[in-house]
Protein 1
Amino acid sequence: MNLIKKTILPVFLATIWISISEFVRNEFLLKSFWTKHYKDLGLTFPSEPANGAVWGIWSLFFAVGIFIVAKKFSLIQTTFLSWFVAFVMMWLVIGNLGVFPYGILLYAIPLSILESFIATLIIKKTN
C-alpha cells in the first residue's frame, strides 16, 4: 500500500497533469503555429491518435524523471532541472531537425515552466 501511495500515485497524478497541459498547450493554444510551420515545410503536422499515445508515454517518462530528481533536489531545483532536460533539450533537437516553429517559444517557455512546476509540486506534495 505504501508503494502505491508514495510512488505510483504521485507519478500517476503528475502524468495526468502533464498530459492535460501538453494537450491544451499544443492542441488549443499553439496548434496554429505548428500547422502553419509544417505546411510551410511541405509537411502535415502529425496529430493522429498514435502521436497522442506517444505523448502520453512521454508524459509518463517525464513524471518518472521528475519523481527521481525530486528525491535529491528542492522544489525549484527539481522544476528547473526537469524543465531543462525535458523541454530545452527537446527544443534543441527538433530545432536542429528544422521542424520547430521558434515563434511558439514566447508562449511555450512560461507554460512549460508552469507545467514542470505543477508536476513537481504534485510529486512533492503527494510523496
Protein 2
Amino acid sequence: MNEIFKALADPTRRKILKMLREKDLSAGEIAEHFDMTKPSISHHLNMLKQANLVLSEKQGQNIYYSLNMTVFQEIIQWIFDFQGRGEDHANQ
C-alpha cells in the first residue's frame, strides 16, 4: 500500500492516471501532454508500474499503458474497511 500512496502523491502521476481512465495510451502520447523530458515521463510511468497502478504492453515499437483496475478496487475496499472500523468504533 505504501508504494501506491507514494505514487498517488504526485500530481503528474495523478494526471497520467486520469488520462488512462479515458483510454490506453502509449508513452509518447502521454508525454505529449506534459512539458517535461521523455525520461521524466518514463520515471513517472515506472513509479506507477511499481505500485501496480498501471499495466504495460509492448505493441510493435510502442509500449501502451492501461489502468490496473484490480488495484483500484483493492484501494477502495481498504478505504471502505478503514471507514467501517471508524464508524464501529464511534458507535461504541
Protein 3
Amino acid sequence: MISQEQIIDKLRQCLDPELGINIIDLGLVYGVSIESSRVNILMTLTTPGCPLDSYFVKDITSKLKSLKGISDVSVELTFDPLWSPSKMSQESQDLLGFVN
C-alpha cells in the first residue's frame, strides 16, 4: 500500500512554473488522503485568480498515477483558508526574499 510520505515525496516534484519551487514547500497542499488506490489532494493556489489551476491538476495527477498502486487521483481546490507566504517553508521564504 502507498504511504502518505510517498505521496508527499512525489508532490515535491510538482513545481510552480513561475517560481520554480515545489507545491509542498510553497504550502499549497492542505491535505492528502488515501482510499485504497485513490489519492485525494486538497490544495490551494497563491491567488483565487491564478491561471495555473488546470496545469497543477494535470501535473499532480500524472505524477501520482506513476506510483505503483495508484489508479485514481482527485485534486480539489479550495481558498479557505486563503494562501499566504507564511504557509511556505522557511527555505522557500528565504529563497524568495520574504522577511519575517
